[in-house]
Amino acid sequence: MQPPELAAAQVHRPFPPERYLPYLTTNQVTALPKQDAAVIVVVAAIEQHGPHLPIATDLILGESLLTLALERAAPATQLWVLPSLAYGRSNEHTAFAGTMTLSQATLGTVIHELAASVARAGFRRLVLFNSHGGNAPVLDYLARDVREATGLMVFHLAMFRTGLSYPQINEQEARWGTHAGEWETSMMLSLTPELVQMDRLEGKGGHAHFDEPEKHEHVQMLGPVMFAWSTHDITTTGAIGDPRPATRERGDDIIRLTVERCAEILTEIAGFEMPIPAGSEGDA
Predict the structure, then answer these.
(1) Cα gap 63→130, rounded to integer Å
(2) Domains in the chain and their CATH numbers?
């Protein structure tokens, strides 16, 4: 493919232009080999990320990690990218300015109609590349509903849910640090340090805590039994966790591990087939 000039290049960035499906003509899309191929869409969020990170953090992370993973995939692997869904379900953050959210119903409708279009084009696999924790429960049930409605093989690939063990963080951050804390801030320091404003933390940080922690063995924010919460229940700054120990070096490590794993997963998805049902002919 001829590299696009500046004006057109603004459309696909940061994705590799040779994997950007909208650059193809309708005849080219029809002619694509689709037996072993997958279409990917980033499902992100525009929402507050504390006093130090931009509200585009989830979109930046999702698009950047997917781009780096695609660059690692073999050129012959049929992985095609659609424009991102920048907005997601972020109602837990509405108490903080800058949060732009879709309702669960709206996000579901958009994904259903997008998936129907992917299926009509003859593709067999759709990947929902999720970069926002609040989208996860919605995308989990949508993936099954979309499969029932379209026959597509649907995959919810969350960048934070790939089975990886990251370098150890302290116990409090592991228990409470889920948004704009040390983990996410480190990644942003690695990818877009110019957008991270650590000086705006003004010494504020730390973690939420219970008055009597010994009474909360099972019921925790991150499980095993979770309680319903909104961000303002957990933090006054918007950061859930402590971003102050974040480093670019730790971010480099997290991104390297995540990109390697996502490239492996996407390659596997491109050739994935559903299992042979138990009890059917050919059942081993």
Answers:
(1) 10
(2) 14-162+171-268 (3.40.50.10310)
SS3 209: coil
Residues in the chain: 284
3-state secondary structure of 215: helix
Q: What is the pLDDT of residues 106-135, one digit of tens each?
A: 999 999 999 999 999 999 999 999 999 999
Question: Cβ distance 99 to 87 under 8 Å?
Answer: no
Q: Which residue has the tokens 């957990």?
A: 234
Planar angle of CA 98, 193, 90, nearest 5 degrees: 25
Name the token pair of 87.
């907005």
Asked if residues 38 and 182 have their Cβ atoms less than 8 Å apart, the reply is: no
pTM tops 0.70, yes or no: yes
Instruction: Go through 35-44 and write b for each residue having 16 or more CB atoms within 10 A of its CB, e for each that does not.
Output: eebbbbbbbb
SS3 letters across 51-113 = ECECCCHHHHHHHHHHHHHHHHCCCCCEEEECCCECCECCHHHCCCCCCEECCHHHHHHHHHH
